[in-house]
């Protein structure tokens, strides 16, 4: 779109809320429509500016070779003087050049269900990937560490058994002597 021919103001002006509300029936819906259109305009302007500035791009690493290009400066100044995307979007809404549609509750419910189904499918695919991963073979250090743990675990019950067994033997011995 040609934003140069737009008659939007270059600075912020006071707007009539009633006029903005009359375009959609709700002021907040108008704000949402304007913000989304402003995002679109901003992306378009940025892409257009980047394409024009790519012509002047220097691909050398030497700082001494960098110089000012008068055309590049003029292009940058021109884009700085353009009205901001928000002002352009509001002007388009006031001139009724923006087409928008507010989805019904059924369409919103369908979109939400599709999103949930997509999330479930992604989660199931992720689970399949996790299950498909092979378990790495244990290294020598892993084997040593696991055997050390089992030796320690086996040693603890043996000590407890010995401690319990000794008093039992002494009590039996006393009974036999008497």
What does this structure look like?
With 178 residues, the protein is mostly helical. It has 3 domains: 3-102, no CATH class; 103-133; 140-177. The protein has 6 helices and no strands. The chain has helices at 17-24, 27-54, 70-81, 85-94, 105-132, 140-177.
Summary tags:
single chain; 178 residues; mainly alpha; 6 helices; 70% helix; 0% strand; disordered C terminus
Instruction: Tally the structural domains.
Output: 3
Order of helices and strands: HHHHHH
Count of distinct strands:
0
Largest sheet: none
Work out the strand percent: under 5%
Q: Ranges with pLDDT <50 over ≥5 residues? A: 150-155, 174-178
Mean pLDDT over the full residue set: 77
Q: Structural class of the helix and strand makeup? A: mainly alpha
Number of helices: 6
Bin the helical content: 55-70%
Q: Shape, please?
A: flat
Radius of gyration: 38 Å
User: How far is the first residue's CA from the last residue's CA?
Assistant: 113 Å
Describe the protein's topology.
Layout: H1 17-24, H2 27-54, H3 70-81, H4 85-94, H5 105-132, H6 140-177
Helix pairs in contact: 1-2, 2-3, 2-4
Give a short synopsis of this structure:
The chain is mostly helical and 178 residues long. It has helices spanning 17-24, 27-54, 70-81, 85-94, 105-132, 140-177. It has 3 domains: 3-102, no CATH class; 103-133; 140-177.
């Amino acid at each position: 779109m040609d934003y140069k021919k737009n008659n939007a103001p270059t600075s912020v002006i006071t707007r009539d809320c009633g006029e903005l509300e009359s375009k959609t029936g709700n002021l907040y819906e108008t704000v949402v429509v304007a913000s989304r259109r402003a995002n679109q305009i901003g992306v378009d302007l940025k892409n257009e500016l980047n394409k024009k500035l790519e012509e002047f791009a220097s691909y050398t690493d030497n700082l001494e070779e960098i110089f000012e290009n008068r055309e590049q400066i003029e292009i940058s100044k021109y884009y700085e003087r353009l009205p901001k995307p928000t002002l352009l979007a509001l002007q388009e809404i006031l001139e009724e050049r923006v087409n928008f549609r507010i989805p019904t509750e059924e369409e919103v419910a369908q979109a939400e269900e599709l999103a949930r189904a997509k999330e479930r499918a992604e989660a199931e695919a992720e689970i399949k990937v996790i299950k498909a991963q092979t378990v790495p073979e244990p290294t020598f250090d892993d084997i040593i560490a696991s055997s050390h743990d089992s030796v320690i675990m086996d040693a603890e019950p043996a000590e407890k058994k010995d401690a319990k067994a000794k008093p039992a033997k002494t009590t039996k011995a006393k009974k036999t002597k008497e």
